[in-house]
Specification:
Blueprint: E1 7-19, E2 24-32, E3 35-40, E4 49-53, E5 58-61, E6 63-68, H1 83-92, E7 95-102, H2 110-121, E8 128-134, H3 140-153, E9 157-162, E10 176-177, H4 179-192, E11 195-199, H5 204-217, H6 225-228, H7 232-247, E12 255-258, H8 263-275, E13 280-285, H9 286-296, H10 315-320, H11 331-342, E14 347-350, H12 358-365, H13 382-392, H14 399-413, E15 431-440, E16 462-471, E17 474-478, E18 481-482, H15 500-503, H16 506-516, H17 548-551
Parallel strand pairs: 1-4, 1-5, 6-7, 7-8, 8-9, 9-10, 9-11, 11-12, 12-13, 13-14
Antiparallel strand pairs: 1-2, 2-3, 5-15, 15-16, 16-17, 17-18
Helix pairs in contact: 4-7, 7-8, 9-11, 9-13
């Protein structure tokens, strides 16, 4: 589409269909200086304004992704993209805001990790971004740093990992916390207004042990190792423990359960969400929905086929599906997840993006499958794939439900709404013009995928995509291609604590819990207390354990250790000169 002449900071979108999570209607949208100024029908064209004719095209708020990982590649984190290339694929796919997960070394400072990330990401991220810190541990030092991150840096999302219940001496990988540390972390999250995120994966100690067992029995086991060592029951265990700590404490804390990837995990989440009265929020990934459904569209797919994904006989394909938790070739699960999105059950869709090139997977894990880096490239595919699977292919998803799942609810969980995630007066002009296309071939995916990675959505023909994307009023994507002259426009978005979407019911919940746990009124106890000084006097009392009447006719095995058996005395006569043969 040729660019209209006029003031670049003032433009009018004419004739489109505005879609928010709660309504859709035909309207014009006026934008000035990066802010939406007016949304109405038949708006007049201001002097000097550009006009974009978007007749009968959808005008959507830019996508918000709470689950992605961009960083500088290193031996410990060999990602296949950069801040710039990853964020550019996000824009091409219609995502204008990401929440990037930042990892911290086990003994490092989370403040230092945050500063290192922001300094390396500055002027290198094409879309707007916020931060979710993954805690490497939890102690008094981390608690102090969290307070500063919230107040000074605007970090209000953290990722927690549950480990063994009694792991006190040797911490497991990935910052897995003990039950005590996890409970303390939730109390701090409640106090500071932080929303904790828990990935529904099997506990690290269990994964490590299963890995050792499988490799000892099958030394040449392939990528299927990373499927077998993460059982569904482990995911259920994590969800149940997280819900127990969050809801049964004296002060409840909301939790976002992320990466719901199995039928058991989904069923457990729904059950615990009901028991926790709606304070559990859920998030799946586009891979759990799109990968099985894209495989289903191939003529050879069978839902009972056990040679798909990480169980494929092709090492390259099998390694490309390694993920935590595993991506399962389950069409029924994908349909159940879509049904949840339709029913507005507070489940959102993230990308779960961590791009790993195929050659890097081979370099790390060809001879030791446990070392295969896990992750998929999905940041740019999230919106087009969900639209295809949910809106177009009879998935039951309306455009409004689509916006709620990928934009509005993620923005509300991050406390960015309505600045992000809505087409309304006063909101940022993060706008996606959604258009139908003839169909994207495999070559068409190249703009949506990181270079050198395997496409887990191969076989899925996309029929819609973002035609134009505006970031705070600046046109960054036109005709499905990047507008290079715009440069890098992304900026860091500090988050505010105590987001209303997650925290507004907590005081009422506290009151309800107190009502459910009534204190029973009783008269004071006035009886004796064993061992109490007030019951002791100078009178010598027979020891309880030596009262003869307590031990008459009691078998020896029933006596306290070290005590002899005491029998009732029987008098006999023993006169001088010999024993008597008669009883008195």
């Amino acid at each position: 589409m040729p660019e209209p002449a006029g003031d670049s900071s003032l433009f009018l979108l004419k004739g489109g269909i505005v879609v928010n999570h709660d309504f859709s209607a035909k309207a014009d949208v006026l934008v000035h200086n990066g802010i939406i100024k007016e949304v109405s029908t038949n708006l007049s064209i201001p002097n000097g304004a550009k006009v974009f004719d978007v007749t009968d095209q959808y005008i959507l708020p830019g996508g918000v992704d709470l689950d992605c990982h961009l960083t500088v590649a290193n031996p410990e984190d060999p990602v296949g993209d950069t801040y710039l290339s990853g964020s550019q694929t996000a824009l091409l796919g219609g995502t204008t805001t990401i929440v990037n997960t930042v990892y911290t070394e086990p003994d490092a400072s989370i403040l230092s990790a945050f500063d290192q990330f922001t300094s390396s990401a500055a002027d290198n991220v094409a879309c707007d971004y916020s931060v979710c810190m993954r805690l490497p541990r939890f102690d008094s030092s981390i608690e102090e740093q969290l307070a500063r991150l919230v107040k000074e840096k605007g970090v209000c999302l953290i990722q927690l990992s549950l480990g063994s219940g009694n792991q006190s001496n040797s911490p497991y990988r990935d910052g897995a916390l003990t039950d005590v540390a996890f409970y303390r972390a939730l109390r701090v999250c409640r106090e500071y207004g932080i929303l904790p995120i828990v990935v529904a994966s099997a506990p690290a100690y269990l994964v490590d042990q299963l890995t050792k067992d499988l490799q000892s029995k099958h030394p040449n086991i392939g990528p299927e190792l990373l499927y077998y060592n993460q059982p569904e029951r482990g995911e259920v265990n994590t969800i149940m423990r997280a819900a127990l700590h969050a809801f049964q404490s004296s002060h409840v804390c909301p939790i976002l359960i992320s990466r719901i990837h199995s039928p058991s995990a989904l069923q457990c989440f729904l059950e615990q969400r009901r028991k926790c009265r709606g304070l559990l929020f859920g998030q799946t990934t586009i891979c759990a929905i799109g990968a099985p459904l894209s495989a289903f569209q191939t003529s050879t797919y069978d839902n009972s086929d056990t040679t798909k994904f990480t169980l494929s006989k092709d090492w390259t394909i099998a390694a490309s599906y390694t993920y935590e938790p595993p991506i399962r070739p389950d069409v029924n699960l994908a349909e159940q997840l879509l049904a949840l999105l339709v029913n507005n059950d507070n489940v959102t869709v993230g990308s779960g993006h961590r791009a790993i090139r195929t050659d890097v997977r081979a370099a790390f894990g060809l001879h030791n499958s446990a070392r295969i880096p896990k992750g998929v490239s999905s940041l740019g595919c999230r919106l087009p794939v969900l639209w295809n699977c949910g809106v177009e292919n009879h998935g039951g998803l309306s455009p409004c439900a689509f916006v709620r799942s990928v934009s509005a609810d993620p923005a509300r969980l991050a406390n960015l709404y309505p600045q992000k995630g809505r087409i309304a007066v006063g909101s940022d002009a993060d706008i996606v013009i959604w258009s139908k296309i003839d169909g994207l071939t495999e070559d068409g995916y190249k703009n949506l995928l990181s270079e050198g990675v395997y496409n887990v959505f191969s076989g899925l023909e996309l029929r819609s995509r973002p035609d134009m994307v505006f970031l705070r009023g600046s046109l960054v994507v036109a005709d499905g291609k990047l507008v290079e002259r715009q440069g890098v426009l992304g900026k860091y978005l500090p988050l505010k604590p105590f987001g209303q979407f997650a925290f507004n019911r907590l005081e009422a919940m506290d009151g309800t819990l107190n009502a459910d746990r009534p204190i029973v009124p009783r008269e004071p106890y006035t009886g004796k207390v064993a061992g109490s000084e007030q019951n002791q006097d100078n009178e010598k009392k027979e020891s309880h354990f030596f009262r003869k009447e307590h031990y008459d006719n009691v078998p020896k095995v029933a006596l306290p250790p070290g005590q002899r058996q005491i029998h009732t005395s029987v008098k006999t006569a023993q006169p001088p000169g010999g024993s008597s043969h008669s009883f008195w």
